[in-house]
Amino acid sequence: MKEQTDKTRLKLLKRLQKALNASPSANVAAGPCPASSSRACSVATPNLIPLLEEEITKTGGVFYLARDKEEIAQYLITLAKRVNAKTIIRDNSILLQGLKLDGVLNNEGLQVIIDYSGTRPAKETNEDKAAWRQPAKDAALGVTSIEYILADTGTVVIKSRPGLSRTLSLVPPIHVAIGEERQILPGLEALFSQGANLQPGSAVIFITGPSRTADIEQTLTIGVHGPIEFHLILLPDE
Is the pLDDT of residue 4 over 50? Predict the structure, then answer.
């Protein structure tokens, strides 16, 4: 078992080394924009959506290609009703602000809490931290934007920042990530070639399907250390 673990670790290190040594333009002709970017961009890459959907499904996640913001709102409403959710917490990103989902969700009896973590004081007490985390604990759905999507593993990449704390994707039992087709990358090597958009200073989170853990007997359990469900809603490029 140790030998297999060592082989897996070595394989991953080789991939990382190869990615870090690659030139910025080696894998992506025109790099996609992260959610935090305000510049317009287009990506000349093959259609990776079928691969992305296949990989997300393999990991136990749910993939949905929405045509517009109305379909996104209806998806969230249907999901919330299925689990009898009353509260949704979302990030304060430009993408989610632009979708204007709050009013539609409110009309369906859903309370929408917006993450204003950017207003937190520089020095916090334990009581302050608990107060900021409580809304995420109370919410049934955590809705976040993303930076990138890795098609070959069905992984979403999120960078925490003011208005998008880590708790939104880790604490609620259901995590719904919303992204755009232009944010899809072929895989990890392409991500590292876009490293300029992942500057240090914030936590970068890689999420592949629902939270899962296994004991020494390799019995897999879902949702112990994070969300029990993961959904990716993708908007096509305009």
Answer: yes
Question: How many C-alpha atoms does 4 have within 13 Å on its Cβ side?
Answer: 1
The candidate with the shortest Cα–Cα distance to 154, out of 234, 88, 74, 76, is: 234
Higher-pLDDT residue of 79, 30: 79
pTM of the model: 0.75
Report domain 55-119+126-235's class: alpha beta
- The residues spanned by each domain of the chain are 55-119+126-235
Q: 126-181: per-residue pLDDT in tens?
A: 776 676 678 888 899 999 999 999 999 999 998 877 667 788 888 899 999 999 99
